[in-house]
């Protein structure tokens, strides 16, 4: 029972500390959220992406061969490395006259494959939505053309090309997520600072603090009176009109 009461008192103490400095906590939440929103909308360039789909399958096969199917699926890992290699990317950069090098383009290309599927996708990210579409299609076409000479195979087909949407939506940054995360950071920072200020505050606030820190009994206390904003002078009796009799 005593442990339960101690827990209740601790929770009440925590709540009182947070309630005491709620303005500071709210200010930090608004500051971090506003800062994150400003950076997201005005400083960070939006990133767009475009994707193409590639099918790995022998074009001249007349019937479905399970062994060949398994081999095509295993080839996707090898093809993923080849697509992001300078053998493909240098050709794309030269053909499109891009202001990038192969390393930069490599970091902005993602290969996504599904388990036990002969289809994989090539996704390109760029600050320009139209350029992302052009690069994605160029990488797919260049890979389809160059793989014949690199591995002496003809088993790559383009299922779907990248298309520029009428109103492209950036994939990052995500403003709402960034603002929410920043507000959460502000909340945690406000709580930490509130506890730190409370911990560094050595002033005695009530009789319990006096007994705890000074180990002295409290003989009496003076309650804080509310401030009177307006004083009605007519409520004060006029002593000058009274006559003292002898």
Strands ordered across the widest β-sheet? 2-3-1-4
Helix % is 40-55%
Q: Tell me the count of domains.
A: 2
| Mean pLDDT value | 82
Radius of gyration: 36 Å
CATH class of the largest domain: Alpha Beta
The SSE order reads HHEHHHEEHEHH
Number of helices: 8
Main attributes of the structure:
Alpha-Beta Plaits, 4-stranded antiparallel β-sheet, 2 domains, single chain, alpha+beta, disordered C terminus
Structure, explained:
The protein has 2 domains: 11-42 and 174-217, no CATH class; 48-160, EIF_2_alpha (Alpha-Beta Plaits, 2-Layer Sandwich), CATH 3.30.70.1130. It has helices at 2-20, 22-43, 66-83, 86-96, 102-107, 129-151, 175-200, 207-214; strands at residues 48-56, 109-113, 119-126, 156-160. It starts with a helix and ends in a 32-residue tail after the last helix. Residues 241-246 have low confidence and may be disordered. Helix 2 (22-43) runs antiparallel to helix 7 (175-200) and helix 4 packs across helix 6 (129-151). With 246 residues, it is an alpha+beta fold. A hairpin with a 5-residue loop joins strand 2 (109-113) and strand 3 (119-126). The protein has a 4-stranded antiparallel beta sheet. It has 8 helices and 4 strands, in the order ααβαααββαβαα. The longest helix has 26 residues, at 175-200.
């Amino acid at each position: 029972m005593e442990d339960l009461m101690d827990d209740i008192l601790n929770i009440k103490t925590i709540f009182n500390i947070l309630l005491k400095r709620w303005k500071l906590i709210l200010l930090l939440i608004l500051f971090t959220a506003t800062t994150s929103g400003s950076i997201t909308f005005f400083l960070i360039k939006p990133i767009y992406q475009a994707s193409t789909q590639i099918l790995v399958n022998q074009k001249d096969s007349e019937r479905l061969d399970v062994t060949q199917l398994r081999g095509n699926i295993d080839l996707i890992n090898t093809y993923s490395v080849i697509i992001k290699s300078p053998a493909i990317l240098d050709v794309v950069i030269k053909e499109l006259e891009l202001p990038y090098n192969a390393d930069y383009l490599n970091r902005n290309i993602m290969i996504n494959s599904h388990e036990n599927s002969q289809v994989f996708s090539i996704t390109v990210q760029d600050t320009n939505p139209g350029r992302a579409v052009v690069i994605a299609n160029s990488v797919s076409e260049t890979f389809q053309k160059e793989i014949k000479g690199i591995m002496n195979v003809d088993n790559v087909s383009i299922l779907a090309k990248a298309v520029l949407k009428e109103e492209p939506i950036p994939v990052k940054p995500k403003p709402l997520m960034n603002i929410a995360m920043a507000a959460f950071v502000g909340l945690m920072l406000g709580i930490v600072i509130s506890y730190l200020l409370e911990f560094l505050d050595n002033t005695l606030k009530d009789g319990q603090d006096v007994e705890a820190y000074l180990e002295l009994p409290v003989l009496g206390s003076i309650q804080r009176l509310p401030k009177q904003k307006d004083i009605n002078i007519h409520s004060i009796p006029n002593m000058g009109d009274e006559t003292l009799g002898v």
